[in-house]
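Schema walkthrough. Field components (list of strings):
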Amino acid sequence: MPRNEGTTARPARHEIRKPESAVNVQTETAYKYIGKPTPRYDGIAQVTGTNAYVDDIRLPGMLTVKVLRAPVLKANLLNVDVSGAARVRGVAAVISAKDVPGGYYGMYGDQPVLADREIRYKGQVIAAVAAVDQDAALEAVEQIKLDLEELPAVLDPEEAMKPDTPKVRPEGNIWSFDGGPFRKVRLGDVDRGFAEADHIVEGTYTTPMQEQSPMETSCSVAMVESGDQLVIRSLSQSPYLHLRQLSNVLKLPMNKMRLVGGNTGGAFGGRFEIHTDHVAGLLALKTRKPVKWRWTREEETLYSTHRGRWKFYFKDGVKKDGRIVARYVRTLHDTGAYTGMGPYCVEKNAMMVAGPFNIPNIAIDGYCVFTNRTPSGAMRGFGVMAGQVCEEIQMHRMAEILGMDPWEIRFVNAWREGDMTATGKVVDNVGAIECMQAVAKLAGIDLPERLKAMSSREKRG
Amino acid sequence: MKYVLSFTVNGQPMETLAEPTTSLLDVLRDKLEVTSPKRGCESGDCGACTVLVNGKAVPSCLTVALTVAGSEITTVEGLVQDGQLHPLQRAFYEHGATQCGFCTCGMLMAAKALLDRNPSPTRDEIVLGMSGNLCRCGGYVQVMEAIEDVAGRKYEVKAADTRGGK
Amino acid sequence: MKKRGVGIAVYCHPTGAKGGGDPSQAMMRLKLDGTLDLLVGSVDLGQGSNTVLRQIAAETLGVPLENITVTNHDTDTGPLCMGTGASRVTFMDGNAVIAAAEDLKRQIREWSTERFEVAADDLEVADNKVSVKGNPQAFMSFAEVGNEMNWKGSFPVGKGSYCPPAQTFDQETGRMTQIAAIAYAACVAEVEVDTGTGVVEVKKLAQAYEIGTGINPLLIKAQIDGGTMQGLGFTLAEDLGPNYPSLKFAPSNFLDYLIPNTADVPEMTYTTVSLPSRGEGPFGAKGFAEMCSFPPIAAIIGAIHDAVGIWIYDYPATPERVLRALEAAGTPAA
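Field assembly_structure (string):
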């Protein structure tokens, strides 16, 4: 009987079948399926309208959920009175913070499912109603009475960093990275680099809060099924991470919950945080009926996680010949009212913000700041896109100041094999130069021969 | 006060009771269990709910069901005939014109309406005809290429192939 | 007045979660008739991960694509995946799928030694069968193997996992070297700026990507065409926190949060670039689709500068911001 010895979850790599030829691995003839245009696995289901999105799911006796959201940016939440709501005809359950059996959720476990002592952002969920239809649910929400003590709030991240500004959270408005106020990256010595530079180019940039805006709004269908297991039809991008968070919130072991998903109407990072699974799950457990909570487009736009706003300050030192000898970047990421994935985002940004360029002296100070805005989250290019966009404008401005072609400055500085990233990784399989050469050709731009002759595989002289 | 509303949906007579203000989208999805039109915005801006009413493309979220009672409604469920995909369905599939697929049903109905009234549209006419259908995955190019190929009669309707996972 | 300009940009994007340590698992089960179930824990968000992972499985196992069903529904039966994001699924799940397929092949070879009376190393699994190396007449089809293995007390399920090493940042230097792969992209953008209205129209985009091995060109095209539209939105129109100080003006639906439509699609061309070497991704693939929203952005801002001589530092470059910058630069709006 053969022993089943599949690879275990060790850091070691498994064996990969090497191709016949190591050169030009794009050769399509080497493979039967790899590199071949292949229609989507679920394509027929999509064009016939037979794949079920979560909102397409209807279960007998299913209840509809509507929630009460905070009307102000910041407040002490003194009392939530749901008694009037519970009396509305057709209402099966009304829940508030006291009905949450366990703890908070989020990557750092700091976000309450239903606001308990305080409001930290406008739109934060305070209470939820499950009713036989939308009208009953909305009427019940109207009957919930709040006792709030409104407090001053802060919306601007630079304001939030000042000492006298209202605190978004008790620990203060600046996340601590290893005991310091920013994630620190230090390669070489930027001061020495700036001293050597022929020109110093500074720039301050802001990037927008961008909403993932998937065509399908957030939705969960939750029901307790046979075996007393809570089953949630979910849009989660990370069912296992969310299972762990839900386990903490609902005080249920993982085998008493099941996330069913795998078919999402778009996500773009927005579903890396729990939006509806926790509340739907709570109401399903309370009512022992199927429960659906679907967000309106307005809720999706205003209250789901979004690409956080950034502010970047660049200071670059460049030589006359175009070589960048020093780059300092101060980054400021607005993570909103709760931590979410903010610190992760700042750190990933610190890894990549200096761009695909060989710069001997780099310093990065990456700040993660809290404001009373809707918590930010992941969106396509999380932590990487916003910073590199600004970095590229710096490149172009430097070229302008040097009187140099914008292609040239990039070619001169672009990584070659064996160069190093800001955080010390030696790069291989490098393709920045080749991409620039290819795109110039595609655009009908005839690059100077000197640039056409460059290669990522040439040794630095 | 509820009204009895009758429609012909994809060639089948259907009837339901609904409040006078109920949208056609809600009637189709919640009452008649026709789920291909999707709720993208419920304000008539995204096109995910597009269906044909007497052959004309409408945003069903903004269409009051009572006002179109008695009409012929066509949705994606009505495109497959005798187990064969409509040329638009096959073209979308083969061009990779679907990503998450949520906008697809609305796109298909808008495309059908476009080609029904203008069988040989220019690219600009396709752009305009499809400009009411939002796709956040951004798959517009492949959608428009699929429509062009159908207009150019590059699509045969092949024998029954509506199984998934092929 | 309408003025045209050209801008360029080059980017890089890492594959995998920051700091590594992000596992994925896969299972491949051989059914009674030789078809297979591929179970993964990732989520197809529209990027096509199920399709890509199926291609990887079919290629590795040497079976027809249509013989593989992909199931990723369920935390009870599905294997672990840290999450679908960070451009990690093709790479991490893909490598886990290869490991699962290789594991299944090994089980089939080991089980078949008795039937063919040769050592496992003398058997090969390819072309939807197991056969003796050098003796193609001595083979069993997958259908036979599936039937025999399952009914005779074996349980042919291949399992595999892939997890890059985990690393934390050095406190003093920020040293962080755990990056599974880095992909590259470059873009040339041509825009037309209307100096009277501040409206920027993107006329042409050319893009080049280096992504290791492209597993599925149809899906690559979709990601490039699609990601570009999100990039355009970021550059020119989308902002949840507009210029006004009060949240009362925050956009709430598609009427005031403008995402691109068909009329915003520029003339687009793209190409992919091959390198002579490859990394550790499945068949040399790198994570890529996230990056598709980046290339146009800085290229467009650079093109605006080329067209009308202004730099925009706050994005999106709305008509208001363009007009204010023109005004500040002393350029008359005309």
